[in-house]
Amino acid sequence: MPQLKKILAPLLTIAILSGSAVAVAQNAPKPEQLIKWRQSAFQVIAWNNGRVKANVEGTYNKEEVVKAANTIAAVANAGLGSLFAPGSDKGKGWHDTSTKPEAFTDKRFGELAGNFIKEANELAKVAANSDQAAVKAQFGALGKTCKACHDDFKTKD
Amino acid sequence: MPQLKKILAPLLTIAILSGSAVAVAQNAPKPEQLIKWRQSAFQVIAWNNGRVKANVEGTYNKEEVVKAANTIAAVANAGLGSLFAPGSDKGKGWHDTSTKPEAFTDKRFGELAGNFIKEANELAKVAANSDQAAVKAQFGALGKTCKACHDDFKTKD
């Protein structure tokens, strides 16, 4: 029955591909989970930003600044982009997402994320090798990349 | 008036010390903030644990495992102990704290945290230098340190 085979073969292919797609979708974290993780990741960044800020504005503890800068850099490099997967533009993690829908369509979002990673890596280097004044300057450069992205892609609530 | 000075001097000392204490307390993050940060930090660890797990149980992507392991190690070394400051034994961050009161009094809590840091650092090393089988084994060792602490110091909710 070569004709039946001709008809069945593509159907089987579709069935297998659909099966894989379902399997991937089943393993993929739900939007609510992605949103919770990204909200958590940015809280960890905020915690460590606050530590660097306190140290550059007050008594400087190099060990603490190095830890904080390394943590910011590690989270920045963790692959945060994967937490902004398609379908996670709406939903509630710890709270309703603060990410504007534009972040999922405008390629500037990725470019601004790249700037953040670059300056976070630089802060970790400066923290390890330089003094309070240099860290303060680089912390300012990092803050600008945070603000640039928040201005365009984060809701104000 | 040497006698008045004798009376006033210790009062002044107390006033100054109290002032410093108040200043410190004003700058110190509130328990609710500490709880929110620590809940966030453990979510970031959970996110990256899940990525390592998926990679050691399925298709192995070394680059992703290295990122995930580095993130776990960085958060482990960030100084999580400071997020369990006295007074943060009760309270609500994203939700009511899951940390048992014993964590704030039993020195085993710190010892178990030390084990977690040690195995997290080892996982980052193994991820960078070894293969899937070695990462799987070390990921098991790390998981034991998580469980040991959760068993005794985390509520079951």
From TrEMBL, chains A, B:
Residues 1-25 form the signal peptide. Pfam families: Cytochrom_C_2 (PF01322). Keywords: Electron transport, Heme, Iron, Metal-binding, Signal, Transport. The keyword Signal applies. Transmembrane segments: none annotated. This is Cytochrome c. It comes from Undibacterium amnicola. The lineage of its organism: Bacteria, Pseudomonadati, Pseudomonadota, Betaproteobacteria, Burkholderiales.
